[in-house]
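Can't paste images in this forum, so I'm doing it all in text. The chain is below; anyone willing to post the predicted structure tokens underneath?
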Amino acid sequence: MEQKYVAFISLFLDLFAFTLILPLFPKIFDFYASKKDDLTYNLLENSVDEYRKLIAHSTDRSLNSVLFGGLIGSLFSFLQFVSSTLIGAASDLYGRKPILLLAMTGTLISYLLWSISGFFIIFLLSRIIGGISKANVSIIIAIMTDLTKRENRSQAMALVGIAFSLGFIIGPSFGAIFSSKLSATASIYTYPSYLAIGLTTVNIIFVVLFYKESLPVENRSKSIKNILFQSIQFINPISLFNFKPIKSLNKESLNALKKIAYSNFLYLFIYSGLEFTLTFLVHHRFNYNSVQQGKMFLFIGILMTLIQGGYVRRIRPGKHLSASIRAIVILIPSFVLIALASNQIILYVGLTLYTYASAVVIPCFTTISSIYGNDDEKGTITGIFRSLGALARAFGPTFSSMIYWSFGASFAYIVGSIAFIIPLSILLSTKIKTE
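Text version of the structure:
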């Protein structure tokens, strides 16, 4: 089997398992809120109630789940931020395959904990381990970079985008279906977590049997000296934004890469917060259950696949920057429509525009970043972008959920849509290397 398709299948299986939980978050928090003997959740909720009395306009206790969800989403991404660059750099040094298998094993452990998370503290532990282990996406992107030349790299990155789209089509749908078929005594997480365990186990076996190391020994980083110093650089945001671990770039290329990184960070900071709270918005405003959430993700995933398969992979070299600019321009009215949606038609018009931008922006940023650096630095550059993305996601959900919790969904989404002007203005001033 051609190796880029091995990487594609592995990424799809990973995302299939990862997205099972997406339509379940509101109901999962409802589940823990209903457990009067869950000391951890009740302690947190009582503390939040006291704080809300001091600062928030809303007295709706159901909004606590938005805040808790945002905090856990941020924690997951913060841990991913810490681990992603370190694991990306380790794959440059030791090879892609052993590090990929290590990350996947950690993910499997997190799903095993999820399957027995009758109490909130166990669920929280499962998300912590999952965040630490969730670096395999950056490794898969590095593998795609290993396997392709610059002139056809956008097609490989489109495969990554298609894997994300298919994961979002199938994963949330299966998560919703499995949660809706529970017996009267089963918890909402039980069957979806079993499926996640099975998919991850199959994925590990698949990688062991079919993936052949794509980074030859002669192309790997040669030195492990100053590894502690480099590790500090890899988790230091200032160092990451300045790409200090990368030594081969001239001043012009480095400045262009920094601008893309700033835009990527700001875009994901705003986007991730609004994206994370979307399931809570439709749960509270339209009373969506898990199955309806799954249908929403199915719509988003199918549309993303069509856009990425029919448009993104055909973007010509040198055109990825302008494509990302157009997509962000379209994203701004999408969140305004979602903010003001009073019926399903307006909601889905907004979701359509949102999906177009979701399908285009990050694959374009990834393709642009992949043209910079030597072969033994591409995994590190990819890891830096993934880490900065995770850092943005570490703050975005908390920031948006705090605004949502305090002032409501409409205010949060309108403020977010206006804020996209900032990364857009940076991109408009950027000149990139010829792809």
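The CA atoms of residues 379 and 419 lie 31 Å apart. The two ends are 28 Å apart (CA to CA).
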